[in-house]
């Protein structure tokens, strides 16, 4: 047994197709067997001891997993026995659902596992068996990690800590990794990339690479968002947004109008359908009313006209009577009736006076009565003769007078007759004309009153009133909406200010935090730098000297030395034995003193701690930034939503105001229209009236003219007749006068003769009286007075008849004249009243008739309109797509009267629909064009399908509007800005983490180079030297990643505000952001081009070799395809692996732990020459490494190994592994 | 004079290789960074430089509504005629596209299957599609595919998603519409067989 720790033995019980195998491994071991006999499986089982990782054993995906392949049975076990300085212990590996381990503090004994029948026991029996025997067996170790911790000596459990192979440090994982890597490397050529991978894989875990797929995804996400925002912010897109918004409003409005109109159409149709019969009935009723009204009016008219005729007759009677009375009165006046009446009044007085005169004359002549009687009789006789003559003459005169008078009378009669005839004709003519004029006048008056009625009638009053009401309501709503909009606009301004203030506050707080964090990071970085400085110099400093030369120096010098002194390189320490345990010769008890020096691990720990602090700070900053952004987003969400809602409200209000304005205008126009229609209706009615009036006026004028002509004609005829009459009368009068004057002359002459004879008789009488003594003079006076009186009486007598007639007339007529006039006036008034009454009745009748006619006409027109409308609807609208589009609304509308005709509504709907289609087409085009500008999977979700419905297009516009109102682009910009920060930060962190390990690489490479130097190749002169060196990586992706990390270091976390050309994007920030975007874009392109999955530690550097074998020197190269023969290549490769393994083991194990050996498993070394193999085994042995190799067959090489095992397949397909009996030549 | 003397953008070669093939660069094209190329040409400074540069090699950059293309200075008539002939076949295609229920306009996204389906359901459209010459595909779907393929090659469409076979109409479609719209069709009255002629203006 060796005095060191080593994997001493591996025992397989029921593993794969090996029933039992016990293989010793305490020296170089070789497995000989043809392919597929289980050599590699066994080597994997050995590797599993070191790696304890069932997935890193090089089992391909097509093969069964480790667990399945090895542990097929309940009683499958792999036992690893480890030799230690005193007694060995072993580890049982078995499957209990998963692979588990148990450590046993004893040497392996098959009896512990097998029954008497050589059957492997179950684990619980094994445990029971061991416990029975008092052998310590650990609890089940469930995890590979814990197992490794135990094996590599980092387990803290005291019971388990003794079961270690070696004491590893914190990097012990490199040991199993290295062993695994050596085993897995099967290429024969030595490629620096493989070595790089080896070193890197040994240093890193699976997660310590930068997964480019992930980075690419992040970059793509960022890039897509960035490009979406960029597209959105483009001028063309903004113009399209405006156009979409505008068109959407138009389309919406048009649609609304169409729907409204469709509703009206539906209402009108329902109304028309329901009202058809009712209107017919109403029209019929109106007709009946009209007939009744006309009949009533006729009755009243007849009554009034009858009364009027009676009164007119009365008036005619009175008029005639008055006229005749006046005429008589005039005639009497012409005959000087007043004087005659006056004289007549004196008649009695004259008669008395005559009687007195007669008595006086009788008394005077009483004495001479005979003479008197003789002369009186003579005179009387004479007088009688004279009278007879006079009478005769008078009679003749009168005869002539009468004759002529008769002629005159005849003439007058003739004249009168002709005059009457003419007058009658004239009256008739004029009467006819007058009747015609009267009828026209009546008609004229009727028209005038009708005009009055028309003027006072308000046409379309209902419509106008409803429009006026609607307008008033609309204005009231408008006023309300305007004030509401003003309030909301104010609220928008207020919220915007509030939002801006909050954003400024958030921005300021973020800036402060960034500055604060950056300062702290700078401070910590300085500390790290300080620690790194110490770590870098520690090898050459006093610290390194103490580490190498003074055991437990921390317990002694470490308690008293100044830390600065420890890292000085210029104090040249030397070891002097005599003062080794004292301070300049003074012994001190340092037990109670605290250690001030720190171990390298502690420095490393401090450094790591500070780095963790930086990470924490950055993480905290990131969190803060995220929180800040979240707060920003919350604010944006809160304010944006409020603003959006308010803006939407404002927009809705503006829109309703706009609509209302349009509606107001429309209503105004409609009102104007109705008013003008009403005016027109009035005008039309009036113009009809006026035309009639004009015609009647013209007719009246013609009639007046005709009347005047008639009057003139008659006047001429009258004049002619009068002139003829007057002429004839004058002629007759002249003849009468001449004949009368002839007779008068004759009479005068004859009377004169009689008077002369009388005078002679008087004179004879007087002379006789005188002779008889009678006073003749007195007698004469009496006689004269008597004569005068008689004359006067005679004259009075002449007028007696006229006066009597006059007095009769006066009594009967003239005195009643005022009464007659009054009565006539009364009748005239009554007649006028009747006339007025008739006129009023007629006017009322006309008005009522007109109203009824109008109503009837309205019903008729409505009926026609309805029928036309329904026909038009059925023939020209029902089958159109417009109907289909609005059928729901049309069919569901309530029956209601509207101000519109069905036909107009149909036409308008059709017309509007074509306009709507045009507008909608434009709207769709704009939406398509806008959405087409974005990627199909843009993060704004601006996507519209080609077969999208109208609703979807409208929703798109609505969403776009909300997007703008809620200012979501700012959110998106903020998110993207955060994202660029996070992406660069994530890249920078990963790069930093990865490149942090570059130092380790450098260190390892240094050690390897050193180890190569130490190699004792000189002895055999096989290989003169193997050199290795590091170079900068030429990996484009890594370089870009590095640049991003540098950029991040340079510009800190927040440089993303100027990401887009927005208001706050200013100068430097914008430039920095542009650079960041460019870098990320370059990285993305590089990742795409390079098609690399991840950036690992090995991509961070280039490794070059220079190997000289004999006379061959490869020069500095990445890959050495062939240095010499295949054997040489295998040798070099193996040497390099062993060196690597050695370096890693040295680096990863505790300094105190030196007495252990590990295995280097390299399969297939068959092509190596015996000489080389010997060289190789010695090279390994010098580094405490035992080789486990595979050989296809026995070739003599096996003689160089301590143990050789052969593999044989038995008949039952089981493999038997048995030791080959060879002698180790050299080890 | 070298290209460097013009201080040209990096993508000049790329721009040239697209447009010299007679293709368009549209602002809404996303494949092969077409929108980036558009932005580069659309930058006034770049535009002047590129124009000056290309004019030397007798090409002129023409600006359409959100797209660019090359025209050749002093092009031979025979070349022009060939170009016009190329447009002839688009008349029926545009006619078909314009007759669809869901009109295909700039930015529209569609799949050939959708168009074929609509054509199948509408006799008028089906006839229009069948009338389109040049294509020998048996099914309507394949015919529409060929049309889309042709239009993609001429850079009027872009195959946006190969999996779903989704095409997007590019801004250059305007050019096609403009050219087609400026074609006046007249009937030759002297010709009895009602032959139609084309006037390009």
Outline the structure in words.
The complex is a heterodimer of chains A (1227) and B (201). With 1227 residues, chain A is α+β, with helices and mostly antiparallel strands. Chain A is 69% helix and 8% strand. Chain A has a 5-stranded antiparallel beta sheet. Chain A has a 5-stranded mixed beta sheet with strand order 14-15-3-16-17, with helices on both faces. In chain A, strands 9-11-12 form a 3-stranded antiparallel beta sheet. In chain A, helix 10 packs across helix 18 (776-812). The two termini of chain A are 16 Å apart. Chain B has 2 domains: 3-72; 85-181, Arc Repressor Mutant, subunit A (Orthogonal Bundle).
Question: What's the SSE blueprint?
Answer:
The complex is a heterodimer of chains A (1227) and B (201).
Chain A: E1 6-15, E2 18-24, E3 29-32, H1 39-51, H2 66-70, E4 77-83, E5 89-96, E6 98-104, H3 123-133, H4 144-151, H5 158-161, H6 174-184, E7 190-191, H7 192-203, E8 210-211, H8 212-233, H9 235-334, H10 337-345, H11 347-365, H12 369-456, H13 461-537, H14 542-549, H15 557-560, H16 563-566, H17 600-772, H18 776-812, H19 817-877, H20 881-892, H21 902-932, H22 950-965, H23 968-996, H24 998-1014, E9 1023-1032, H25 1036-1051, H26 1067-1090, E10 1094-1095, E11 1101-1109, E12 1112-1113, E13 1119-1120, H27 1126-1148, E14 1158-1162, H28 1170-1181, E15 1185-1191, E16 1203-1209, E17 1215-1219
Parallel strand pairs in A: 3-15, 3-16, 14-15
Antiparallel strand pairs in A: 1-2, 1-4, 4-5, 5-6, 7-13, 8-10, 9-11, 11-12, 16-17
Chain B: H1 12-19, E1 25-26, H2 34-42, H3 44-56, E2 59-64, E3 67-72, H4 77-99, E4 109-110, H5 112-121, H6 123-131, H7 140-153, E5 157-161, E6 166-169, H8 173-181, E7 183-187, E8 196-200
Antiparallel strand pairs in B: 1-3, 2-3, 4-6, 5-6, 7-8
Helix pairs in contact in B: 4-6, 4-8, 5-6, 5-7
């Amino acid at each position: 047994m060796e005095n060191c720790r080593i994997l001493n033995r591996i025992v397989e019980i029921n593993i794969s197709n090996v029933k039992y195998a016990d293989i010793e491994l305490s020296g170089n071991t070789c497995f000989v067997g043809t392919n597929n006999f289980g050599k590699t499986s066994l080597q994997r089982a050995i590797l599993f001891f070191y790696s304890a990782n069932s997935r890193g054993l090089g089992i391909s995906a097509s093969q069964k997993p480790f667990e399945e392949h090895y542990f097929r049975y309940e009683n499958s076990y792999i036992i690893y026995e480890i030799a230690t300085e005193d007694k060995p212990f072993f580890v049982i590996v078995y499957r209990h659902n998963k692979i588990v381990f148990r450590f046993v503090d004893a040497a392996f004994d098959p009896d512990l596992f097998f029954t008497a029948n050589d059957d492997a026991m179950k684990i619980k029996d094994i445990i029971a068996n061991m416990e029975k025997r008092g052998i310590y067996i650990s609890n089940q170790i469930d995890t590979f990690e814990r197992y490794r911790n135990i094996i590599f000596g980092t387990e803290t459990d005291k019971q388990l800590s003794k079961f270690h192979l070696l004491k590893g440090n914190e990097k012990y994982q490199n040991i199993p990794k290295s062993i695994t890597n050596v085993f897995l490397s099967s290429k024969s050529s030595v490629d620096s990339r493989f070595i790089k991978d080896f070193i890197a894989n040994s240093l890193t875990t699976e997660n310590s690479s930068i997964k480019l797929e992930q980075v690419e995804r992040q970059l793509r996400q960022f890039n897509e968002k960035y490009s979406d925002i960029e597209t959105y912010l483009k001028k063309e897109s903004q113009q399209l947004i405006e156009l979409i918004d505008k068109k959407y409003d138009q389309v919406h409005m048009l649609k609304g109008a169409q729907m409204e109109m469709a509703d009206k159409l539906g209402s009108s149709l329902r109304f028309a359908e329901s009202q058809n019969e009712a209107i017919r009935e109403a029209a019929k009723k109106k007709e009946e009313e009209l007939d009744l009204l006309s009949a009533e009016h006729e009755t009243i008219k007849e009554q009034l006209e009858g009364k009027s005729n009676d009164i007119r007759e009365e008036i005619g009677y009175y008029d005639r009577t008055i006229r005749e009375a006046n005429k008589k009165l005039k005639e009497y006046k012409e005959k000087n009736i007043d004087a005659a009446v006056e004289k007549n009044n004196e008649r009695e007085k004259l008669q008395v006076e005559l009687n007195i005169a007669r008595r006086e004359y009788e008394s005077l002549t009483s004495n001479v009565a005979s003479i008197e009687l003789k002369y009186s009789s003579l005179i009387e006789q004479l007088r009688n003769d004279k009278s007879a003559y006079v009478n005769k003459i008078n009679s003749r005169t009168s005869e002539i007078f009468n004759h002529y008078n008769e002629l005159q009378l005849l003439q007058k009669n003739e004249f009168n007759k002709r005059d009457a005839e003419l007058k009658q004709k004239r009256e008739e003519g004029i009467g006819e004309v007058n009747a015609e004029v009267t009828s026209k006048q009546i008609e004229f008056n009727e028209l005038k009153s009708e005009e009055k009625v028309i003027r006072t009638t308000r046409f379309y009053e209902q419509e106008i009133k409803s429009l006026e009401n609607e307008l008033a309501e609309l204005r009231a709503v408008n006023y309300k909406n305007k004030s509401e909009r003003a309030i909301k606009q104010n609220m928008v301004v207020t919220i915007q200010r509030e939002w801006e203030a909050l954003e400024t506050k958030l921005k300021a707080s973020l800036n402060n935090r960034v500055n604060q964090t950056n300062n702290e990071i700078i401070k910590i970085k300085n500390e790290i730098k300080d620690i790194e400085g110490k770590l870098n110099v520690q090898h050459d400093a006093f610290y390194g000297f103490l580490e190498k030369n003074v055991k437990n120096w921390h317990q002694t010098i470490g308690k008293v030395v100044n830390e600065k002194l420890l890292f000085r390189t210029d104090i040249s320490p030397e070891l002097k034995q005599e003062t080794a345990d004292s301070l300049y010769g003074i012994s001190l008890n340092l037990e109670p003193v605290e250690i001030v020096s720190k171990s390298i691990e502690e420095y490393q720990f401090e450094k790591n701690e500070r780095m963790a602090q930086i990470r924490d700070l950055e993480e905290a900053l990131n969190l803060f930034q995220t929180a800040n952004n979240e707060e920003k987003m919350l604010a944006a969400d809160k304010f944006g939503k409020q603003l959006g809602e308010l803006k939407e409200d404002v927009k809705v209000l503006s829109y309703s105001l706009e609509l209302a304005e349009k509606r107001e205008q429309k209503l105004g126009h409609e009102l104007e229209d109705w008013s003008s229609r009403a005016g027109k209706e009035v005008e039309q009615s009036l113009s009809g009236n006026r035309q009639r009036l004009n015609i009647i006026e013209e007719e009246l004028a013609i009639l007046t003219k005709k009347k005047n002509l008639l009057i003139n004609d008659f006047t001429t005829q009258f004049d002619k007749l009068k002139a003829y009459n007057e002429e004839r009368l004058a002629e007759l009068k002249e003849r009468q006068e001449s004949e009368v004057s002839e007779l008068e002359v004759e009479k005068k002459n004859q009377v004169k003769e009689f008077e002369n004879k009388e005078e002679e008789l008087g004179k004879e009488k007087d002379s006789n009286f005188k002779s008889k003594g009678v006073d003749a003079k007195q007698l004469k006076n009496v006689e004269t007075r008597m004569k005068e009186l008689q004359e006067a009486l005679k004259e009075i007598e002449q007028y007696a008849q006229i006066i009597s007639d006059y007095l009769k007339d006066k009594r009967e007529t003239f005195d009643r004249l005022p009464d007659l006039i009054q009565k006539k006036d009364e009748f005239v008034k009554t007649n006028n009243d009747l006339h007025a009454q008739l006129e009023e009745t007629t006017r009322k009748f006309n008005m009522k008739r007109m109203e009824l006619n109008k109503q009837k006409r309205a019903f008729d027109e409505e009926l026609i309109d309805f029928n036309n409308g329904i026909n038009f609807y059925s023939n020209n609208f029902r089958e159109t797509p417009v109907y289909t589009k609005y059928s729901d609304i049309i069919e569901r509308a309530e029956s209601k009267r509207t101000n519109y005709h069905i036909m107009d509504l149909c036409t308008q709907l059709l017309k509007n629909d074509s306009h709507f289609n045009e507008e909608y087409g434009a709207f769709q085009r704009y939406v398509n064009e806008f959405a087409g500008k974005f990627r199909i999977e843009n993060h704004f979700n601006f996507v519209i399908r080609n077969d999208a419905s109208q609703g979807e297009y409208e929703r798109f516009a609505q969403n776009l509007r909300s997007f703008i109102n809620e200012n979501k682009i700012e959110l998106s910009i903020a998110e993207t800005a955060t994202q660029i920060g996070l992406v660069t930060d994530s890249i920078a962190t990963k790069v930093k983490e990865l490149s942090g390990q570059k130092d380790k690489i450098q260190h390892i490479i240094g050690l390897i180079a050193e180890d190569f130097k130490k190699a004792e190749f000189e002895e055999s002169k096989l290989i003169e030297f193997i050199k290795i060196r590091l170079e900068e990586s030429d990996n484009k992706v890594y370089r870009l990643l590095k640049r991003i990390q540098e950029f991040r270091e340079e510009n800190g976390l927040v440089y993303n505000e100027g990401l887009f050309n927005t208001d706050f994007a200013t100068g430097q920030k914008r430039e920095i952001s542009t650079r960041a975007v460019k870098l990320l874009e370059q990285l993305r392109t590089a990742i795409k081009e390079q098609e690399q999955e991840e950036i690992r530690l090995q991509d961070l550097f280039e490794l070059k070799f220079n190997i000289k074998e004999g006379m061959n020197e490869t020069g500095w190269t990445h890959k050495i395809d062939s240095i010499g023969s295949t054997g040489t290549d295998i040798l070099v490769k193996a040497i390099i692996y062993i060196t690597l393994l050695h370096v890693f083991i040295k680096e990863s194990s505790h300094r105190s732990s030196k007495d252990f050996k590990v295995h280097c498993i390299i399969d297939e070394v068959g092509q190596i020459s015996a000489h080389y193999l010997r060289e190789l085994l010695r090279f390994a042995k010098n580094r405490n490494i035992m080789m486990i190799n595979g050989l296809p067959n026995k070739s003599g090489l096996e003689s160089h190994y301590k143990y050789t095992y052969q593999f044989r397949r038995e008949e039952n397909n089981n493999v038997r592994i048995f030791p080959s009996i060879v002698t180790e030549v050299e080890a | 004079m070298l290209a460097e003397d013009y201080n040209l953008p990096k993508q000049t070669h790329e721009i040239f290789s697209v447009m010299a093939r007679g293709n368009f660069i549209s602002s809404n094209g996303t494949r092969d960074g077409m929108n980036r190329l558009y932005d580069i040409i659309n930058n006034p400074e770049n535009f002047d430089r590129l124009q000056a540069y290309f004019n030397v090699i007798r090409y002129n950059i023409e600006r359409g509504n959100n797209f660019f293309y090359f025209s050749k200075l002093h092009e031979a008539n025979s070349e022009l005629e060939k170009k016009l002939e190329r447009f002839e076949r688009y008349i029926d295609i545009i006619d078909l596209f314009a007759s669809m229920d869901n009109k295909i306009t700039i930015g529209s996204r569609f799949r050939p299957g959708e168009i074929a389906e609509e054509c199948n359901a509408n006799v008028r459209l089906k006839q229009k599609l069948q009338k389109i010459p040049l294509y020998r595909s048996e099914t309507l779907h394949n015919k529409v595919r060929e049309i889309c393929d042709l239009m993609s090659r001429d850079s009027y469409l872009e195959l946006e998603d190969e999996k779903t076979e989704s095409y997007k109409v590019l801004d250059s479609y305007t050019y096609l519409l403009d050219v087609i719209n400026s074609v006046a069709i007249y009937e030759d009255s002297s010709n009895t067989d009602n032959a139609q002629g084309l006037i390009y203006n």
